Amino acid sequence: MPTRTLRIPTPDGQADAFAAFPDHGERHPGVLLYTDVFGVRPELEERARELARHGYYVLVPNLYYRHGPAPVMELPAHIGHEIRPAVVAQLMPLVEAHTTERALRDADAYLAFLTSRPEVSARPVGVIGYCMGGVLALRTAAARPDQVAAVAGFHCGNLVTAAPDSPHRLVPKIAAQVHLGHAEHDMTSEAISELDQTLDAAGLGYTSEIHPGTVHGFTMSDTDAFNPSALQRHWDGLLALLDRTLVSS
């Protein structure tokens, strides 16, 4: 499985990124993968490899590139409950510095880079995200509806807020099909209902489902939140979305 460490030109510098893609020569559907709060690391690199095994070119940018190449801080091999709060606290200044304005500038650069790769098909791409990456995925799909055919988010939270630019308020700008997999307590039932009503009103093809018995971060095997059966359900929904939007359409 070919992999590369790449440099993506952005208005604010050079973003390092991990890419994985099939080892045969033809062009493949492109996927932009936004990480969770812990950033690019072996867990996300393996996620990209798995998607590549299914026939996709997957680009995983370092969201914190303004602060240095990945990993921007030393992470333990396993992020257990007892150390998670301290690790997140260290990363929060980087998260807060990644403003919506910066995120949208970066999204333009990431999409331009991904769609220019010689290994990537000349058609709209998929954008997926985990944790805070799910918010970035929806923002990207709303900002570039002509370029994004599929958008997915898992254990996101913060998709429905009181802010004027809350992700759910951007749904009418999205043209992609949507798949969302929620942990049990990441969002209130009222927030999920409001999100689903917004998706209904926009007339989008979408799936929005709660994964029973899960906590935030359930897809990540390097954390105590990991739930193997929920990870498989995540793969089932994600691969079905990508197949019908990027391959079969």
Question: Can you walk through the features of this model?
Answer:
- With 249 residues, the protein is of the alpha/beta class.
- Helix content is 36%, strand content 20%.
- It contains six helices and eight strands, in the order βββαβααβαββαβα.
- The protein has helices spanning 42-53, 84-97, 100-116, 132-143, 189-202, 228-247, and strands at 3-10, 13-20, 30-34, 57-61, 125-130, 148-154, 177-182, 206-210.
- The chain has an eight-stranded mixed beta sheet, with helices on both faces.
- The longest helix has 20 residues, at 228-247.
- The model has no long low-confidence stretch (mean pLDDT 96).
Low-pLDDT parts are none
The overall average pLDDT, rounded, is: 96
- Report the span from N to C terminus: 26 Å
- Large-scale geometry: globular
Strand content: 15-25%
| Count of runs of 4 or more consecutive helical residues | 6
| Most strands sheet | 8 strands, mixed
Q: What share of residues is helical? A: 25-40%
Q: Would you list the SSEs in sequence order as H and E?
A: EEEHEHHEHEEHEH
Structural class: alpha/beta
The largest sheet has its strands arranged as: 1-2-4-3-5-6-7-8
